[in-house]
Amino acid sequence: MDTLSNSERKASAPVSAPLSGPEPSGETLLSRFGRWWGRKGERDGNARPDSGIDAKADARPVTLPARVLRRQCEQLRLCFDARLTDGAANTAAQTWRAEYEAAGDDARQAMLAVLAEVAANGSTEAGEDGKAGKAGNPASGLPQAMSNARIRFFKRLAALHGQQGSSVCGLHFLIGLRADMLRWHKRVPGLRPLDDDLEALFSNWFDVGLLELQPITWDSPASLLEKLIRYEAVHEIASWADLRNRLDSDRRCYAFFHPRMPREPLIFVEVAFVPEMAANVHALLDEAAPLEDLRRVKWAIFYSISNTQAGLRGVSFGNFLLKRVIEELQREFPKLKQFATLSPIPGFADWLRKRDGESVAKVLGDKRLARWSERHGTPPADGAGWLAALPADSEDALVRDTALALAAHYLVRERQQALPADPVARFHLGNGACVERLNWAADLSRKGRAQSCGMMVNYLYATEALDDNLVRLGNGNPRVSRAVGKLL
Question: How much is the pTM?
């Protein structure tokens, strides 16, 4: 029997990684993809941003040797020309895929360039000369014919099973292929039609109705726990002890899985049970803190949401994840009624840095500026100056209130195409949540200081108010608490 108290066990018990069992080769990662999820051009949830753009985006990709180029063109044309059930085309697709998996980044870019060129030139269905293949069909039918050929090619790849070694199932390979397309779309011309077709296919193949919600626990396979550490996008998991703390009895972790990829989480959320709405991530993740008594717990806090697959960009299922998790938690704890997040404000610092002095002054108003001048002298000349004047660990009440006022304006008033400019606010408000509270000195990590002056925000999920809140958001008036309203 364990004679240590809960707090002593968390603080002192040695933690080792669980023993790893063999993982099927078909479920091995193709590569370490970036963290990203939500709509194209946006970052939803609490996920870490991933621009998906190579730093050398303007450089031209390498060229394949002439012999290899001819062979790959022949392979791809065979795939594009054939019917979906053609065995020879399946073999050609498998060969192309194997070469792509074995290639380095430069060679992959060159292979994508060949793929884009062959796809743009059409197939027998469209005719070699760029005219419609069937007599009487106008040339305007060519784009649809080429799209059909591209879709057949992607379906052929999706149907392939993983081979020996590091190969993954065909569906997972396509996710990695699209991640490369998004990363190199400025280096490799002609990828847009391929990307559009893949995104449309993924929207069907990864429909939320096809996904499985599963809990992840300390008893889950070690290979899955390792992926949790790797994919965590909001608050880095520093050790196995840290992970065990996040999977302890007063915590929960849920993930969406696709049936074809049962060992690969698509997105996961970490939940903590606490007696009151959390205001500080360091206290929330304290390994030495005692376990919460689940008989008396009042709040479920979603403190990290991480998307794992860069190639699923534009396929939005994160909003369904939180609602499904709330349902699961209510089934497990019928008396649990309070649900909120403790979320970063990833765009705040960049937004403030780009403001001029006049626009910041307009946000703060004359009274706040007068108080600042009285205590600190002449206000900073621009947003970058204000950013430097708001250190995350300051105990000055005026510094705190000034930063909170700016953050409240950014979250509630700043817009990007009629939606909140901040990606995390866009996600949670788009789910029907309310901006409940801003927290000073809530994340003093290097990342927290850099992106939001250490501030975090609670989004409240009141299940009975979600629909009404969505209507308010659509009318340009997102729901905020009284405390946040006073900051505006």
Answer: 0.80
